[in-house]
Amino acid sequence: MAMLEISGVHTFYGRIEALRGVDLTVEEGEIVTMVGANGAGKSTLLMTLCGNPRAAQGSIVFEGRDIAAMPTHDIVSLGIAQSPEGRRIFPRMSVLENLQMGAINTDDAFFDDDLEKVFEMFPILKQRQDQRGGTLSGGEQQMLAIGRALMSRPRLLLLDEPSLGLAPLVVRQIFEVIKTLNKEQGMTVFLVEQNAYHALKLAHRGYVMVNGLITLSGSGTELLSDPEVRAAYLEGGA
């Protein structure tokens, strides 16, 4: 059984159908990526997984349990954490306080070890731990958003556009961390990205979403070499 199985999911914003029957799976220990143009429905899918907005139709099964109708806090407690698009850290809180918020539903006994792991991955956060989140650079805020998600000890990490608006050097650093999390800690990652090259290079498997529908799927290598994907996402296309 797949860790995450999404079947026939439709999601609406008012009368606008944002997801039009999405089917996908994520196996335990995989990095699965979804690429697509801005507005394709990628972020809506991640938000639907977390219960806001709700799926109007279809099932979302996580580790054998349908979570489609569950409240968001119950979904999080099952071991799903999201680093959302636009980072959405707490700007007035310090770096350390942001990380404490990530750990709010976990056992206090794990806190010091988990904090040290985040600081090992992102040494700049250790240096900035007393600084307000809102005064960090964009790249540092992204590191903080991922670190905060990791503090909840997730079984499944959802990353929404982690490279958006960041300098190439920082993008490489973020993707290296995702690779390390998967390889060394066995973290299962579902990654939504416009940066198709980096995302598919990293992924075991990938999906392409167009207008709320999945139009292609395959291994990361297969999609990187697919003429349609290359034309649309790797050669200056939409």
Descriptive overview:
This protein is of the alpha/beta class. It folds into two domains: 162 residues, P-loop containing nucleotide triphosphate hydrolases (Rossmann fold), CATH 3.40.50.300; 66 residues, no CATH class. It is 38% helix and 26% strand. It contains ten helices and ten strands. The protein has a six-stranded mixed sheet with strand order 6-7-8-3-9-10, sandwiched between helices. Strands 2-1-4-5 form a four-stranded antiparallel sheet, covered by helices on one side. Helix 3 runs parallel beside helix 6. The protein is globular, with a radius of gyration of 17 Å.
What's this, in brief?
The chain has 10 helices and 10 strands. With 238 residues, the protein is of the alpha/beta class.
List the helices and strands and how they pair.
Elements: E1 4-13, E2 16-26, E3 31-35, H1 42-49, E4 57-62, E5 65-66, H2 72-77, E6 80-83, H3 95-102, H4 111-121, H5 123-127, H6 138-150, E7 156-160, H7 168-185, E8 188-193, H8 196-202, E9 205-210, E10 213-219, H9 220-225, H10 227-234
Helix pairs in contact: 3-6
- Give the overall form: globular
Radius of gyration (Å): 17 Å
- Number of structural domains: 2
Q: Give the overall average pLDDT.
A: 94
CATH superfamily of the largest domain: P-loop containing nucleotide triphosphate hydrolases
Distance between the termini: 35 Å
Strand content: 25-35%
CATH fold node name of the largest domain: Rossmann fold
Unreliable stretches (pLDDT < 50, length at least 5) are none
- Percent of residues in helices: 25-40%
Features:
238 residues, alpha/beta, Rossmann fold, 2 domains, 6-stranded mixed beta sheet, 4-stranded antiparallel beta sheet, globular, ABC_transporter-like_CS, nucleotide-binding, ATP hydrolysis activity, ATP-binding, branched-chain amino acid transmembrane transporter activity
